[in-house]
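Data deposition worksheet. Section B asks for the primary sequence of the deposited chain exactly as it was used as input, without tags or linkers unless they were present during the calculation. Section C holds the resulting structure in token form. Section D is free text for depositor observations; keep each observation to a single sentence. Incomplete worksheets are returned to the depositor.
Section A, Depositor: J.P.
Section B:
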Amino acid sequence: MSTMNAPAPTPPRAMPGTGAAGAVLLLAPRINETGLQLRTAAGRRGLRAFTATSWQAPEELLGSTAPVHVYGGPLFGDAVGRALGLALLEPSATWLGDLPRELTGRRVSCTTLAEARELRGPAFVKPPADKVFAARVYEDGAALPGPEVLDGDTPVQVSEVVRFRREYRLFVLDGTVRAASRYAVDGELSVAPLGADAGEVLAFAADVLADGPGLPSAAVVDVGPTDGGWAVVEANAAWASGGYAADPEGVLDVVLRAAGPLAQLPAADRPFLRDLPEIVR
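Section C:
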């Protein structure tokens, strides 16, 4: 997995599906640190980095012949994706629950918010994709958002409570880790390169990517050690995930594939397309 430390790609050697000179990287209006890093990395490749000024697809990109890619949160992706003809890839909502117990280190199930409200003990509950409520440990189902806030058929992921001693973010492209970073220690934000932990992190990642159910060709997978051994935290869309201390060049490779033109989408990635709303203005 030496690709994590590879030199920054140049436009003539750009990997298929990871951008080419003349393409556009569209960033959300409220640009974060990762967005700033990606903007710089894109410029080095000859891509045009365009920061949106509103939550709408920029007029000058509508109908453009230049391939457009996007980096931003789910709300921004939904706001511009259909108008720009984008294919936004995200892991299946059931991906974590479909993993074998030896990779999750805990029981994980996908259910509805209505059923989760019946929980009689503590559990970690989160929306599988969009952040429609806080992902955290709830003492019981009564502590979850009520029907006056969210419909009961809202999908949720319910997990046994485990303690991750450290947590690492992996940007994965075609089954290979392209960039990675530590982002938490004992549940608290703690950003650092992998350093001496790289061997253990990448060894467990290889097991997950070899033995787990399918992911889109570009995705983010979070892993870490618990008191019972290594386990998967979750998987998310690369185009909406922070890079922390990961190499921006590798992050950009994954983001460009994860959110690019629908016309260039490989057939194998079609099951992982985000269902984009039609925005009426």
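Section D:
The mean pLDDT is 89.
DSSP finds seven helices and 14 strands in the chain.
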